[in-house]
Every structure is written in structure tokens, then in C-alpha cells.
Amino acid sequence: MVLAVVDWIREIVCMKKINQQVVFVAVCTAALITISTKVNAACQGVVSANSNQVEAEKLLAAYCFDCHGEGGEGGLNLVGLLEQDSFDGTLLFENLITSKMPPSDMEQPSVAEKQVILKWLAERQDEVAEISFRRISRHEFVHSVNDLLGTNLDLASEIPEDRGTNDFDSDRRIQLSKEQIASYFMVADKMVEHAFPVDGFPQEQIWITNKLKDSHETYNIYVRDYKDGTLLSWTRANNGNSYSFFYDNFEPPAAGWYDLTFDAMKVGEFEGDVSVQVHAGKYYYADDRPQPQRLLDVISLGNRQLESHSVRVFLNPGENVSVHCYSKHTYRNKNPNQGAYIKQLKVRGPIQGQWPPKSYPTVFGELPLKSSPKPAQNKELEPTVVSGFQSNLQKIGGNLTVSSFQKGMGKEKMQDGSNRTFWHTRFEPSIADSPHFVILENPRQIEIEGLSYATWSGGNGNGQVQKFSVFVSDDGKTWGDPVVEGDLEIRLANEQPIHFTKATTKRFIKFLITDSFSLDGRSLASIGKLDVVVGLKVDHPKNRVIVDSNSSDDLKRVIRRFSERAFSSNLSDYELESYFGLGLWPLAENQEFSQAAKVALKAMILSPRFVMGPGKHSSLSHSKIAALARILWLSVPDDELIGLANLGSMSDEVIAAQIDRMLDDKKSDRMIESFCEQWLNLRSWRTIAPSLKLYPEYDDLLNYYLPMETTAYLRYLIQEDLPVGNLIDSNFSILNQRLAEHYGIGGVVGQQMRKVSFSSEVPRGGLLTMGSVLKVTTDGFDTSPILRGAWISKNIVGTPLSPPPEEVKAIEPEHGKTAATLKEQIEQHKSNPACYACHKSIDPYGFALENFDATGGWRTEYRVEKPHRGTFQFRLNGYYDLAQEVDASGGIDDQEFENIFGLKQALLLDHKKLAYNFAKKFFEFANGYKPTLKQRMELFNLIENDPDDCRVRGLINKVVVYSLAGEEK
Amino acid sequence: MNPTSRRDFLKFGAALPLALHSLDLRKDMPKRATPPRRVMFICNSLGFYRPNFFPRVRGDLSSSKYLAEMKTKDKLTVFQNLFHPGMETSNHDSEKSFLTGVAKPEAPSFSNSVSVDQVLAQQIGNETRFPFLPLSIYDRGWGCSWNNRGVAIPPMHDETKVFDMLFGKEDLVAKREQIANDQLVVKCLCRDIKTLEKSGGDAAKIDSYRVVITELEKQLEHDAFWLDAQKPDVANTLSTDVEYAFSAKIKNMLELSKLAFQTDSTRVITFSMDWIYGAIKVPGATGGWHTLSHHGGKKDALEKLIRIESDIIQHVNKFLADLDGIKEGDGTLLDHTTVVLGSNFGDASNHTCNNLPTIVAGGGFNHQAHSVLDRPTPLCNLWLELLNEHNVDMGQFGSGDQNLNLLAT
Question: Which of A238, A502, A578, A591 should be substituted to probe chain B, the one whose Cβ sees the most B Cβ atoms within 10 Å?
């Protein structure tokens, strides 16, 4: 989506062939009007002359044709255009309704007169009929199924992205593809299986560990053993990544939710909290490459006494938990004495939350349940405390022998879990001759799939293995041909797996070093780690839940109940026949009740009655509750809504009260997040990584919190029902320590998001000055006033932008690189009337934001990248010079401003325009299409005249009620 | 289809020419006389810097900065002067029309039609386990491939998942059960569609659902058929370079394409390459690819852009050379694989779509190194020629109504 917007906006910058129509536009003071011939000529209706038309034309003649008549100074000849049925009056309508036209210094039509013109424009407009239906989006699908099954799985990323270049997920032009429905099938399987696993639920366990896995020697100097655990300072890797330290002795046995409890505290006398980023990822610690990991949550350490900090996170098998400490006071403290002290990590999981798991009562209601075996109670759970390290070879009771060893560098060093220590062949007093080898013994003859090898993590590579052969033997004497041969990389501290083509149960395995690296030609060999790879399938204890029934009537009831929730309909037995069949058949084959129901449940969540909306519902009220749940929760109705619909018709008051209730429900967070992501284009902004040379202060933590500010802010406006002007400006935002640091606001301690008020000199408050929004229009290097201006124009002000004329070279402004200032470069737009017609309403918004860099930080001077020697090495000061002062002044529609403060005031002058744009956007989000001109008039009429009465929550409520009224058509 | 025929089929291996629905394997199957033909489309949606792309000396590929190093120069043709009529200029949506030729992709009311790769997939795709393989470099939901109804086919972007799909060992018992389950579900849903119809549901809505369910039903049949055939044993040679992740991604997608063709797992692949977000890193340059593509002729931007484009060309070069290094029948895999490398932009800096940089490689064609057309010619004429070359006679495709007729032997 960013693609579409950024580029479509960028196009505005350039111009090509100037055709006749565009010349009109260029000269027209009405600016953003383009004239396009309706594509769908076949649908054009003939507009019959009526009294309304006569009156409207009279008014247009009175207020508009002076400038916009034949030969008028406004250039655009509306007289000629309005005579054409094919003329698209949308922009005329928009300029009129938002009072952009007639210009403020001209005579204005009265409210009633304006209504007449608008009404006529809306009536004459030939609206292409909207598609009557839409498919469920991937986010709606996953949320709905979670609610239906009582699960909590985030599987949306397993479904292909489905918004394409449209603004909103709900866009009705998006059609279902086979690939999409196939991925719904796949995800449905996973979710149903997760809710009712055939083998039962893995039993909850507790792990306690204080041991970190090996980390790279470049960075392990910034952490140290401290008291019973570890003390970490802030360590960004040389490439700027958050360097993370991985916990040993815990591997999630199954995908699920885990409680991670860190016993930790802040160490050191400095202001502010120390943060610990909790990541999950595959263990990896090379020096200068990103560690593949995702940030799960953050804990904030303030008190200088040990406390337990818990986060609940979703982990997959194969992932390890890692931590990264952030505190700007502790950057790369060698052998640190301040930072974050973590005594231990306690893991508990997979968490079921309740027993029997929520999925059972959610789907099977009151049916009696049996579980076997009984799950362990809290007190009975034995923690698995592991402090030492056990290699796989040790776990299977094996041992090893080596061809020779140097004193202090014995074979046990390959098995201690660390590659800071290593085995080395003898070099003193005499050099051991080749062959050098290691023999691993597998006395219990366990199936071994391969070997895992790692060099030691220091040195110059001397002695490291380059080529090897592996042999197996029953007696340790006769070896035969090698089972695998290959090359190994030197100076790569990560583990290098050696797969056997066939697993072996032979008693002896010989790892023969056929070539090793040697600086001076001596025959040496060394190994940091060598271990066997075994399945080690631990039979994780499981608890099963059984529905104690084999009654087909019970099963029908379950299916009927589920269908009522999924389809928001009361269906007859006849209509449910095909779903009954899917469940009854396995039940008749004596399958356990919940297992028998699974295929029928799956079919219902893939049914056209669920996947396609608006559905065919058993009553109008059922249609309304389905729409309500889809819009406000991205989900299906709950019991209260179903109960109301079953009672009969629902008045607008009842609906309005339900909207209120639903906005208070936690599930509305999904809507808020989703709406922000789509309306403000925040969805893919995380992929925009700011340049570390220009913005060394940008980090993962900021990246994590910036979009949260936006959603938390909108949530707050809704919760408190604040006036719509808060979208533009306010004296508060929802911040934490990291964000406040970024914004230069003092006194905010701790990473919990909370309301922070500030004085009027602070430029923050409102959407425009949020880092998330300021970053989304950049590529991480430069900011572009044009892109930012177009973004505000489209998303906040709601001025429709027309595509650029043709054949004019793009203006690509650059900071500080040329003699011309940025503004001078952009003001080239002024020199070309074809550009200026539109750009005078775009660029100035962007100018006002020039005080904000590509990460949303405040600046008074531009940063210009400067070269660095050799490979890039992250440093806190970055690589930039300051050049040129920022000039953030500009003017729009006769409103001059010096900087962002002035722009905010200019935008706040017309709250109705802001509210109108917000209403249009929310309407489109809710309905999947842009409101027609008639609907826009009605939306506009919903807006209060008094800015103090025009509030965000109320506006959402009205738009939703209005949208639902459409269901009656 | 009964189980015996499946087993017979498996004996003969995967490379047999067979149309699924007319398959009767109990008759004597002639051994395939010639290797199968494959097609791949690569769209570099941010274009190529043309002064470095097109040969400066007519007919001499070594006069092109990008193509001078090509190892398979005698097996490729650079076309100059191709365009999509009605899209002389466009925005990034022009990628939607790259393989379809439908004008005005940026219009709100745009609706696409079938893309050339899909027409080919319908013709030659059913004989392999995967009728078609759509690839991209990130999760984007759409690319160059559009089905018969003009709906985007979401490409796959995770190379590990693609590798697993192509070559990963499956739990066949579970997979069989799952397909059977899905078939039951599909049957149930088809019955419910009828019920919905009878009760007067929205016909357009039901139709739009029915058509995908019917397609899914066919795919399940296809999957079930292939279940018994062993997937080829292929070593995972994918790069895990996280430093140059972008570069590695392109390399991996091409490597997967090579493996997929080599094992005859599929015969049609489309790779949609674009990147509109933040900076990417290739050896020698870090920058926003998209921003750089709007270089406006500025030297430092161009320098970086050229590094990125050279990196891409270098991967394609290796890919073509790899295909050419694999013997197959009387020739090489490249001789039986048509690879198209092109872009929806002629000049991405100005968003113009004339003179699209286009290369056709391999396919056993009569290559002429550099073909400069006298006047702007619809790219769809080239698509028509490729269709004809694969025995699809459509007469007309998109804006093309004339076989370009420049490749045929």
C-alpha cells in the first residue's frame, strides 16, 4: 500500500504531455479539479432537467460563473463542463462542501443555497453501483476464528497480503482468489487443531535458568557474571543492530503462550529506567550480521531492588529467548558495573489460561467434559532447574576420544557448550602428527542424524578445520568408506551442521580432519564445539480433554450454535444439513465428540456464509449485528448482540448504545490498530529502516513504540470522546520514556505508555507530529516536503489529489547538497503553472514539517551524510555534518505560517472539514467503498457545528449507525 | 482415476507429457522424445537505467554496461522499442499490466485480465506437480500474475517455504487425510451454495465464491494425484546471507527456479521484483531502491542505483549460465526454457513506460542479440509470439494482435 500511495503521490511531482484539459486545470484557481470522462460510459444515466437543476444552475451562475464561465479569469469553464453528462463533479462538490470555493474573499452562498447546489451535483452524479458484497480480509478471518474457537493465535501472516494497492482491507473491489481461500483452509486447519488437538494439550512446565549461551567475543565483554546472574550494559552491534544474548536451557516444546518472568533490577546511579528487550529467535551470534529475531515485549527496570517482571509471549518450537539491554547511560560499558541485572529467567508454559481450555466451553457450551490425566495444579508443578550444560553426547551417555591434545585444551572443551574454550592437538613440547581425529562413542546405539561443529570464537583461524571425513564403525577398528565428507568454514563461530545422508546407530563415529588451516604450515587442529545431532524426542506429557457425549442431537446443537455465531443467522435444520453431515458421520464411526465436530467446524469457517459479507442473515437485526461486529471488532457478534437480534428489530438508539459498549470492549483495539494502519498508511512502515549514519539514535525500541503512540492516542480520543481537533493538535500524547527521550520531553520514566501533558511550546500532540506518521513518508534517509504534503492533503485534510500532468521532469529535492535550498528547489513548482495549480495546496503542508527529520526527531538544521572509512561501524554520533538551517514557513489558502505551530492553527480553523474527512475515511473503512456524493452530504450533515460538540467517539458512532441504516436498502 | 493408473504413472516418472483429465496410463506411453518447454517471466518493476541496459552499438551486446558480462550472449535477444499502448506513462500500478497489457492500471475502476503466464500455465502447467510458481521478494499479495477473472495471484516470498513446498518431505499419511478432509469440506460447501441459491442469496456473491471453490476442488484433485509421486531429492543450496538480504533473496528465488525447472516440478514461473520501502543493501551500495530509481539524472543517486541493478543482472546472468550448464536432451536446460527479463517501466525516474527494457533468453530461439524495432511496438506482440511458440493460438492478446515473429527459428 505504501507503494501505491508513495508513488502516486510522487507522481504529482512530475508532469508530462500537457493536454487541453490539463491546461484548464493548470490555470484554474480551483486548483485540484481534473476533468475525467467516466470510464463506464454504459452506466451513464440521463439527467433530466428538473426544478432543482434550474435553481442550482441559477446559484452556480451567481456564485461561480463570474470566474468560471466562458473566458472567466478562473479559467475553468464550468458552464461548458456541467452541460456534459459525463463530467465528474466530485471535486466541484468537495470544494464547495468544504468551503474551499468560492474563495473566502468572494461572496458566499447561504447554507440553504449551498445545499441546493450540492444536492443537484449529487443527483446528477452518475455513481457506478457498488459491488454488493466483499470477502473477509485476512485480519478479520483470524480475529473472527479466534473468537469463535476461543483461541488466541496470530496467523494472519500465513495468509498472503490481501489489500494490494487499495486503501482499505475492506475494499469491495478486492476479489477472492483460489490461493487466498486455499490459505484460509490451511489456517483454519491449524486453528481448529490448536483448539482441539487430537493428542491433547502439552502439559504446563516450569524452567528456571540463569545461563546465557555463548555470545561473540566482540560483545560479550559488555556483559558479565554478576551475583547469581548476569549484568548487561547497552550493546549495539557494529552494524547497529540490537545485539542480543540468548538464554540457554530452555526450548519451547510446543507452539503456545509462555510466561517469561525475569527477576531483575536496575544497577547504577542514573536517571530513568533500564529497558530489557525480550526477543525470540533462532540462536545466532555472529559479529556483524543481524540476528534473526523478533521483539516480543519490553520490561522496564526502575527500582534498585530485585523484582519479578513477567511478560506473556507466544513462542514456537526452535525459538530461543534472548535479551538486549537499553539504557543510554550504559553504552558499551566494558565489564559493566551498571545496567540491567537479571538474576534468572523463569519460564512457564504452554499456558492454557483456564482448564479445560477456553475452546471447549466456547464451542461445546455446557456439555460435560472429562480430562485425562488431570493437569498438574500450580503447586504440583516441579520446576526444571538447569544451571549446568549437558551436550547431546552426554545426554545419550556417550563419550569421546581424541588423537592428541595440548595440556589445558583437552577433549572436554568441545563438550562444555562454549566455543570460547576449545580442544587443540598437541603442539608442545612436540607437534602431534596427523591424522588428527575425534572419535565419538555412542554406547546405547541411539539414532544419530549428524554432527554439529563450531570453531572456537577467537584467534586467527590457526588449526581450524577446513576439510573433514566422517566414518562409522561397530568396533572402533574397521571404518570402511566415509559416510560424509565436506568443507567447513574457518573463523565462523556459529554452529555448522554436518548432516548424515542416513541416520546411524553404529557405536563409533570418527571425525577425521583431512585439512586444517595453518598460518605457518605446522600440522595443527582445533575445535570449539563438536556434538552429535539426535532427535531427542522428549515425549512431552499431554492432557486430553474429552467431551462426554456421543449424542447426535448434542452435536447438531453444537453445530447450530456455532453457525449462529459464525453466520449471525438462525438457520433451519435444512440449511445446516450439509454441515450436520460432516459431524455426524465421524461420530457414528465412534470418534470422540470434539474430534468428530472438527471437520464441520472447519467447513463453517470456510462457508460462503462466513467468508463472504454482508451475509444473508435471518433478519435485518442479524445483518446489523454482523456488520457491527465486523466493523468494530473485526470479528463476529458476541452473545449479547445475538441476544438482541433474536429479540427482533433494533432501533438506532439500541445500536448506538451497543456501539458504545463495543468501543469500550478490548476487542475494539483491533479496529483502532487496523484503522490507523490503513488510514495513516502505518502498516508497512516498520520495513523502512532509517539510515544509521544519519540517525544513529533510531533503534528497535523506538521502532516498537512509535506506532503504539498513534494507536494509543486514537484509543484515548475515543475513550474520552475528545473533540476532533485533537487529531491535529493537543497538549498531550501517549508516551513512555523512550518516546519522550526521542521527542525531547523530560520527566517521563519507565516504558509503560501513559498520558503525558506538555506545555504549548512542545510541537507534539496530534497526529501530524508523531514519529510514526513523520517516518512513513520517508525512505529512511531524506524527508520530502512534497510527499509529506501530499500525505496530509490526502489523509488529514481530505483534498482529493489528481494525477499529475505529463512530460515534466520530476523535482527531486535534496538537502544541503546543492546551492539552492530545498525550498528553492521545490518552488520551481511555482514557475510552472501546470505544477503550481496543485502544488500550492500540497507543498506548504510539507514545509511546515521540515523541522522533523526522517525519524520524527526535531531538527533546526539538516543532517548531511559524510563518508566513513572502511566498513561501516555503528557509532552513537553517526556520520553526518549539519548543513543549512531549516525553513519551515509557508502559506496555504491565504493562511501564512512560520512553522508547524502555525500550520496546526490553520488546520484547526475549520473543524468541520477535519471531521468530514475523518467521517469519510471511517465510512470507507467500515463499508469497503468511498461514500457517494449523496452519502457525503449526509455524512457532512452529521457533523456538529460547534467544535466542542464534534467529538471522535460520537463521530464514529454516527458513521456506524449511518452505515448500518444502509443495510435496510 | 484409479490407484493403478497412479502407480503406473509413478513408474514413468514426473516428466511425462500428460494431460490430467485424459490420462490413461495403462496404454503404452511413448517416452518423451523431446524435453518439455518451460517459461519464466522476471519483472524488475523499478526498471533499468536504460543507458546502461541497451547496447550503445547496435547489435553488439558488449557495448551494454549491464549485458557485456552475460555468459549466454548467443542465447538472448535484447528488444528495443516495445511498449504497452495506452500506458505511455503510468505509476507503479503499471506492474499489474506488465503481463496483461490492459491499459490504465492506475484508474480506480481498473479491472485486469488474464496474464500471459497464466495462459501458458493453463496450456503447459498441468503436467507437473506445480502448474505454476509465482514468486516475489516480500509479502505483497499481488504481482504480475492475474487469473482468468483478472484477480491477482498472490506470489510466494519465503524461500524456505517455497523450498519446502517443492522438495520438502511430507507426512504422506497426514497429507492424504488432509486432502480427503478438504474434499469433504468442499463437497459440503458446494451443497450449501446450492441451498443459498435456492433461498435467493445474492447471485453475484455466490458466483464469486463458487468459482474459487471449484478451482480449489480441481487443485485438490491435482494434489491428490501427485501425492503418490515422490518429490525429487534436492539438497538445500539456498543462501542464508542476512547481511545482503535483498541480494540473497533474488539469488535464492532464481536458484529455486533453476531447481524447479531442473526437476520438472513446474514449467511456468513468474518472479515479480519490487521494493518500495526503505533502504536495501547490495555490495557497494545502501539506499532506498525506489528513491534511487527516481534519480533525476543525479550522479550520486545513479551510482547507487547502478550498483543495485548490476547486482540483479549479475544474478540473472548466473541463473542463465546455470541453466545453460545443465545438459538436457540434445541441448541444455536453457535451450528448453524461455526466460523473459523485463520491466513495466521504460524510465522509472519519470514513470514513463515507452521503450521497455526487455530481454528474451533461451527457449531454443533464433536469437539475434539486439533487435531494435523500427517503431514503438506493443509488448503484447512479443507475448503473442511466445504464446504461439507454445502452441497457444489466441489471435489476439491484450493490445497485441500480431505475432512479433522475431524469435522463431
Answer: A578
